Amino acid sequence: MKVLHILIVYLITVAMVLPGYAAQKSRLHRILEEGVLRVGTTGDWNPMTLRDPATNSYKGFDIDVMNELARDMGVKVKFVPAEWKTIVSGIVANKYDISTSASITPARIRTVGFTRSYYQVATVPLTLKKFLSRYSDWEDVNQPGVTVAVTLGTSQEQQVKRFFPKARVRSIEAPARDFQEVLSGRAQVSVTSNLEASLLIRTHPQLAVIPVSKPRSPADLALMTPQDDLVWLNFLNHWITIKQNRGFFKALQDKWMPQP
Question: Which of 122, 181, 219, 223 is close enough to 103 for a disulfide, judged by CB 3.0 to 4.6 Å?
């Protein structure tokens, strides 16, 4: 741990003397001066970020990542509530310095920056177990009589419009979620990441993943950052490399994403 601390201090020092730093201070410098790292998070994506409404506290894979980052920087972490439909604009409006993980998409990278990726997911459809005889692949869902639920502002919202042009798409605004529409009978199918789906079917045994030929739209997950702050982004990328090389992300994967 002493070696790791030295590496973190070295990266911060190097970032502070990069060309152009004096002219425009990075968020890295402000975070270190003020002692607070602001993290935007939705709190509704199991197992990455989950908010407990009773205590207004957060837990999950990404929450552990952010707590570790703040510890290595020697600052406190402040979690800022965010929604998928506005998580990008929250970065642009400087409501937080970084977000918990989000899918890297062409639409998003036009507006914000992303760190290097540390996990990959893909999209799968969910339905009730009693409906599995109706759906065996993607095209079975793409029918006029089918309602597909998706959470507003997620990367899957744009996907379903391409996947299911014949079906009815119902976009659900947080804090409600797409899979709840299936459980209530207001939709026959919802779509989400294969990661979240694997956990939802454990929590809600009446749900099942439709056995499609293969998941669609593989997506790299990364932390979202302001696009114009290369010093901050450079620091974060090196920090992720250090943590990956020392097994930190693998340990979190074993903790939050255990294999059945």
Answer: 219
3-class state of residue 205 by DSSP: coil
pTM of the shown model: 0.77
Two tokens, residue 185: 């009978």
Cis peptide before 106 (omega within 30 of 0): no
- Residue pair 182/190 in contact (Cβ under 8 Å)? The answer is yes
Please report, for residues 126, 152, 193, 230, the alpha-carbon distance to residue 170 in angstroms, rounded to integers and kept in the order given: 14, 9, 17, 38
Mean pLDDT, rounded, of the chain:
90
Cα distance from N-terminal residue to C-terminal residue, the chain: 32
The pLDDT assigned to 22 comes to 43
Q: Does residue 226 have a pLDDT over 60?
A: yes
Per-residue exposure over 115-124, b if at least 16 CB sit within 10 Å of its own CB, e if not:
beebbebebb
**pLDDT tens track for 231-246:** 999 999 999 999 999 9
- Asked if pLDDT for residue 67 goes beyond 80, the answer is yes
DSSP 79: E
| Cα distance between residue 29 and residue 97, in whole Å | 12
Strand, helix or coil for residue 34: helix
Residue pair 157/171 in contact (Cβ under 8 Å)? The answer is yes
b/e 204-232 (16+ beta carbons within 10 angstroms → b):
beebbbbebeebbbebebbbbbbeebebb
Superfamily name and number for 2-115+223-256? Periplasmic binding protein-like II (3.40.190.10)
